[in-house]
């Protein structure tokens, strides 16, 4: 084989390599280091299908996180006139959103991301410090590609079904608030305190029968708490 032909063949192989990598399925995340499990591919496929038929506005306002976000089905009505869209996937933990940020945050280039996750993490055995570190990692992942996007974290809520976790929830919220105060383009919204009753305990009237997921009254509190921030500055 001539030298010229060998060079052309080598060049062709080098050209095809990135294409092959792009066409091959992404490697699954390592559990539990990179994600809580590998069950979210179905959700990602659903988001991709939705994006193809009805793409969210580029530069809009994204809500992402676990089931408390997923079930926030009244976003458009709660924030009329704002380009809000929902990319919550139920049961997820903080690092799941970090792992999939390249697919469900970065492509949209949102002006703001409202992020809720953390109580599933604590319930699965992660410590308050680990949750704090995971939230910081999510912010850093978003800012790696979107440094001008503001990430607003919603504090972990006080669910009656997880009352045994309240000390850990309070610790995690305090750690996260302090950590985010040191990072650019971040914010923290306390939805824990307004969801307590007069006795200082979780207000059961804000929750469904499972005492974990919220009723419209619970979402009304969240809406009031974040409404002043739901805009592209």
Account of the protein in words:
By secondary structure, the chain is α/β, with parallel strands linked by helices. It has helices at about 5-25, 40-55, 65-70, 75-80, 95-100, 100-105, 120-125, 130-145, 165-180, 215-225; strands at about 60-65, 85-90, 110-115, 150-155, 185-190. The protein has a 5-stranded parallel beta sheet. Strand 4 (about 150-155), helix 9 and strand 5 form a beta-alpha-beta unit.
Low-confidence stretches: 6-23
Helix content: 40-55%
Mean residue pLDDT: 91
Radius of gyration: 20 Å
Please work out how many helical segments DSSP would assign: 10
User: Which class best fits the helix and strand makeup?
Assistant: alpha/beta
Task: Based on Cα principal axes, name the global outline.
Answer: globular
Major sheet attributes: 5 strands, parallel
Which percent range describes the beta-strand content? 5-15%
- Strand arrangement across the biggest beta sheet: 2-1-3-4-5
How many angstroms separate the termini?
Answer: 63 Å
From N to C, what is the helix and strand string? Answer: HHEHHEHHEHHEHEH
Q: Briefly, what is this?
A:
The protein has 233 residues and is of the alpha/beta class. The protein contains ten helices and five strands.
